[in-house]
Amino acid sequence: MTTGGPDEVRCMLMRGGTSKGAYFLAGDLPSQPAVRDDLLLRVMGSPDPRQIDGLGGAHPLTSKVAVVSASADPAVDVDYLFLQVGVETGEVSDRQNCGNVLAGVGPFAVERGLVAAADGETSVRIRMLNTGGLAIATFPAPGGRVDYTGSAEVSGVPGTAAPVVIEFPPDGSPLLPTGSVRDTVAGIPVTCVDNGMPTVLIAASSLKITGYEDPEDLEKDLALGGRLREIRLAAGPLMGLGEVEGTTVPKLSLLAPPVHGGAVMTRTFLPVRCHTSIGVLAAASVAAGLRIEGGVGQDVAELPAAGERLRIEHPTGFLDIEAGVDAGGPRPVARRTAVVRTARKIFDGTVFARPAGIASRS
């Protein structure tokens, strides 16, 4: 914590991929999770649908936090804890990763002096504490300083920026957490995949929608929302996640044939809000799921040759991702997964949290 008092915290606001979040050094936050989470709710302005009294942007995609520290593991540079801060609820969840916020972790680590930048390209080895997985982020740092400018484009983000290449080495965890290529959940055929993000793949047509609807229209469809909730609550225990009523995993990704030359069109739920694009790790799970022979995705996808990059279409564009699957053994196993994202530093300074004990009146 800073010397200015418990409500003043050093913070960097960054855009990572198609998300935006507040990045903190672990040492600048309270060590007790409950105290830390209370502070973060006040920093983000939650609970309040507008988050008018904090940093949050009134949407799950802009109410995120990264907590970063130097790692004690010699094989890793930094540890990264992702926290999803509720918008209208006073909840802070560590039950999932975020691959978009992850795009800013490497640059943040250099900015805060946790990792020395190389002159040219810098790679930062990141342990994702939420799941224990490893990611390697590589980005330009000419002269030992992070360069955020470049020509890489990310659908859903205005303009261009420097590429951040994120590689996810295989960790040996089950790609199919239920042990089956297909399951029937709440009467609907699904494929449950975990290639970094527990995700349930569902053919949109099986829910009597096209999969091309506007996210806002899907959110307003109460009957669809009820069916998705039923599927998610039933899939959670099957995937080894236990009771998922109050969590944000598993994600649900509705699949439809592509319309812009990609592999598949998606509509992904967070779990209630429909993503205006798709998260990196959800896309990694979708891509791996499409490569599994007999999965529900193969009924709707148009796949390129094995080994080629997959283009995952979403409501505001696409995400290109490399996701290989080794099907030679008794069960399919994920191989190297890599994606190009961008990140940008928005501000660096001190954030002043809403005083404790003041509740939202919205």
Automatic annotation (TrEMBL):
Residues annotated as signal peptide: none
Keyword RNA-binding attributed: no
InterPro entries: OMA_tautomer-like, PrpF-like
Enzyme Commission number: 5.3.2.8
Gene Ontology MF annotations: isomerase activity
Isomerase listed as a keyword: yes
Domain of life: Bacteria
Keyword annotations from UniProtKB, A to Z: Isomerase
Pfam families, per the entry: PrpF
Similarity annotation: Belongs to the PrpF family.
NCBIfam families: OMA_tautomer
Protein name: 4-oxalomesaconate tautomerase
Provenance organism: Streptomyces ureilyticus
Record lineage: Bacteria, Bacillati, Actinomycetota, Actinomycetes, Kitasatosporales
